[in-house]
Design goal:
This protein is α+β, with helices and mostly antiparallel strands. It folds into 2 domains: 71 residues, no CATH class; 35 residues, no CATH class. Helix content is 25%, strand content 18%. It is built from 4 helices and 6 strands, in the order βααββαβαββ. The protein has a 4-stranded antiparallel sheet with strand order 2-3-1-4. The chain has a two-stranded antiparallel ribbon with strand order 5-6. It is globular and about 35 Å long.
Length: 118
């Protein structure tokens, strides 16, 4: 089967419109410091794909009139997906792992291998 291998943990960039920014702001309770971590400039915002689906999924359906972002999505290059920080995982005795970005990881980061959610 032909295609490209893309993991939902890989990053994408989307161009948010006014509606999309409003949704993002509401999702993070207006916390500008969190929202700014996603900003790639020129109204483009970088998310892991699962995160984009989690935040905007209910606004994306066939026939939706007010889409939160342009329908063209930029898939980040593999080296950009490896930009995650290394941190000591609170749940893992094994030491450092790749930091996982999630809506609840700003106060409690866990590695992608032992993250179970809150």
């Amino acid at each position: 089967m032909k295609g490209i291998n893309f993991n939902i943990n890989d990053c994408v960039r989307v161009h948010l419109n006014e509606e999309g920014f409003k949704i993002l702001k509401e999702y993070f309770n207006g916390d500008k410091s969190i929202i700014e971590t996603y900003n790639s400039g020129n109204n483009y915002y970088k998310f892991q794909l699962w995160e984009l689906m989690n935040i905007f999924g209910k606004y994306l359906y066939n026939g939706a009139v007010k889409l939160p972002f342009d329908t063209n999505i930029i898939i980040c290059l593999p080296e950009e997906n490896k930009e995650q920080k290394k941190v000591k995982c609170k749940k893992s005795p094994d030491g450092e792992h790749d930091y996982i970005m999630s809506s609840d990881s700003f106060d409690s980061p866990y590695c992608r291998y032992c993250y179970k959610g809150s």
